[in-house]
């Protein structure tokens, strides 16, 4: 059963177990630091990447070892500014490219996850029915929450 969810621009959901989402986010954030103008968003998302000393909380997030704060890995991309969403997708593409170029068998699972996420984005751009590739049984309406820098 999936324990962490990312909601995309058309309300479809990308769902994976905590470990998969955490590792994906680590790769994406790693690429964000190299994108011009993305430093504030990098700082924001970096706080969501668990360190080796942090512990899973059993609910799709982790408990920071330094503060004992619970951090959830669920987020709705629509809550980020358009600019930050563009940074997110560019960093995701760059992370995928880097893993493919490394040609390591251990990267195959992550390549699959990032490819699936980017396939969802491509389908959103084509205005395809979200239910044709959705890890949830329905789409999620946007609640209007604004997260991250730039608002």
What does this protein look like?
With 151 residues, the protein is of the alpha+beta class. The chain has four helices and six strands. The protein has helices at 18-32, 39-46, 82-102, 108-125; strands spanning 4-7, 13-16, 55-56, 61-63, 70-72, 75-76. The strands form two sheets. Strands 2-1-6 form a three-stranded mixed sheet. A hairpin with a 6-residue loop joins strand 4 (61-63) and strand 5 (70-72). Helix 1 (18-32) runs antiparallel to helix 2. The longest helix is centred in the middle third of the chain and has 21 residues, at 82-102. The termini are far apart. The model has no long low-confidence stretch (mean pLDDT 95).
List key phrases describing it:
151 residues; alpha+beta; three-stranded mixed sheet; three-stranded antiparallel sheet; 4 helices
Average pLDDT rating: 95
Work out the helicity level.
40-55%
The first-to-last residue Cα distance is: 34 Å
Oligomeric status? single chain
Strand content: 5-15%
* SSE string: EEHHEEEEHH
Please state the structural category: alpha+beta
Regions with pLDDT < 50 over 5+ consecutive residues? none
Give me the number of helical elements. 4
Strand order of the largest sheet: 2-1-6
Q: What composes the largest sheet?
A: 3 strands, mixed
Q: Rounded to an integer, what's the Rg over CA atoms?
A: 15 Å
Annotation, overall tally of beta strands:
6
């Amino acid at each position: 059963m999936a324990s962490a969810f990312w909601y995309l621009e058309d309300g479809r959901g990308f769902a994976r177990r905590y470990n998969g989402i955490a590792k994906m986010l680590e790769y994406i954030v790693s690429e964000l630091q190299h994108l011009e103008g993305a430093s504030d968003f990098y700082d924001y998302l970096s706080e969501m990447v668990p360190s080796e000393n942090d512990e899973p909380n059993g609910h799709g997030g982790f408990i920071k070892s330094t503060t004992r704060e619970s951090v959830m890995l669920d987020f709705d991309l629509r809550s980020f500014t358009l600019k930050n969403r563009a940074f997110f997708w560019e960093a995701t593409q760059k992370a995928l490219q880097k893993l493919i170029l490394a040609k390591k068998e251990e990267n195959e699972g992550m390549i699959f996850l990032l490819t699936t996420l980017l396939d969802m984005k491509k389908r959103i751009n084509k205005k395809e029915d979200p239910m044709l590739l959705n890890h949830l049984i329905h789409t999620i309406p946007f609640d209007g929450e604004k997260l991250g820098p730039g608002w």
